[in-house]
């Protein structure tokens, strides 16, 4: 059995403690120490970096060859293919990649390398849906439809392949659909049901965050609960932070003229919400909620500083406070780690 360095240290301390307390014999202790080996961390690091490089190069190649669309359009026009035919070809290609990914999952349990196939699936499905909608909808200009189709396709494949990466892509596509669809429903207005974009996305993020509980109740989707929770929370916090800056204002040119103090209600509301979420996270030991809220609480403080005090405070004092805040976070992190280890 292979263990990393930290795991091996924990196991070795346990064996040594049992041996000193005479719970096990020296022979059994020696046998236990010989039952595991330390994994070569350098090899693992090289493998991870090589995988990242392969994915990056693959994405660049795919972007240069496919997303640019020049060679697709060149072949399509040369051979007289319609946009529907291109959509069919990429649909078959996406199906083939899903089949190969499923076979690889059954044969290999290395999750990181399996996700490489899922990246190719994400891009191929996007191209297929783009050409399908361009051919069938005849360029209606409503980008919400292909985004909704992409979200449904990614979600279905994510469940089939048990891939959190595809599930996250489905949520992101659904967020794009929400923004595009509400824009379409409002006939191009920046307001929908009295909400501007930041407020709409805050509501959307809250809905995704809350839906993680429902996802966890379905046995076949339970493995996606954590990803849904984290992405929904992140969307809610990012949109809420944006809302604290712009408020529910829908005129960008008008917003630039107003003083930031005009939006004090939204800034105060976001700060109070963060404080309440932090209290809850510490009270009930919600690590993901705690860590993300701490990051956004600091971001909120710096944002308010730039809004209200940048022209009145010495830059040296600001960066000194910045350094102290990061030191405080690091100190607390060490304390939490010590309590967890104990």
From TrEMBL:
Top-level taxonomic group: Bacteria
Alphabetic keyword roster: Membrane, Transmembrane, Transmembrane helix
Membrane spanning residue stretches: 46-67, 79-100, 112-131, 143-161, 166-185, 197-215, 227-250, 262-282, 289-306, 312-330
Protein name in UniProt: DUF2157 domain-containing protein
């Amino acid at each position: 059995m292979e263990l990393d360095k930290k795991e091996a240290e924990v196991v070795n301390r346990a064996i040594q403690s049992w041996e000193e307390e005479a719970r096990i014999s020296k022979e059994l202790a020696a046998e236990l120490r010989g039952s595991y080996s330390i994994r070569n961390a350098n090899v693992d690091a090289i493998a991870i970096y090589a995988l990242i490089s392969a994915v990056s190069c693959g994405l660049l190649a795919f972007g240069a060859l496919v997303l640019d669309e020049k060679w697709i359009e060149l072949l399509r026009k040369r051979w007289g293919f319609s946009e529907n035919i291109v959509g069919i070809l990429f649909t078959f290609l996406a199906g083939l990649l899903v089949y190969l990914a499923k076979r690889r999952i059954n044969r290999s349990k290395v999750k990181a390398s399996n996700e490489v196939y899922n990246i190719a699936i994400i891009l191929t499905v996007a191209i297929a849906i783009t050409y399908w909608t361009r051919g069938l909808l005849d360029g209606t200009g409503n980008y919400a439809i292909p985004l909704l189709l992409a979200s449904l396709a990614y979600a279905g494949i994510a469940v089939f392949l048990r891939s959190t990466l595809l599930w996250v892509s489905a949520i992101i596509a659904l967020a794009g659909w929400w923004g595009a669809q509400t824009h379409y429903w409002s006939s191009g207005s920046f307001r929908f049901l009295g909400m501007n974009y930041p407020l709409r996305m805050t509501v959307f993020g809250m809905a995704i965050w809350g839906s993680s509980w429902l996802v966890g109740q379905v046995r076949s989707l339970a493995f996606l609960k954590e990803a849904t929770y984290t992405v929904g929370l992140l969307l809610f916090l990012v949109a809420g932070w944006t809302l604290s800056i712009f408020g529910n204002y829908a005129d960008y040119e008008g917003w630039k003229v107003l003083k930031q103090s005009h939006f004090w209600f939204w800034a105060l509301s976001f700060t109070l919400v963060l404080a309440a979420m932090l209290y809850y996270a510490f009270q009930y030991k919600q690590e993901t909620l705690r860590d993300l809220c701490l990051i956004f609480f600091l971001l909120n403080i710096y944002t308010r500083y730039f809004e209200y005090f940048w022209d009145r405070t010495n830059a040296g004092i600001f960066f000194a406070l910045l350094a102290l805040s990061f030191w405080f976070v690091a100190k607390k992190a060490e304390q939490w780690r010590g309590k967890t280890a104990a």
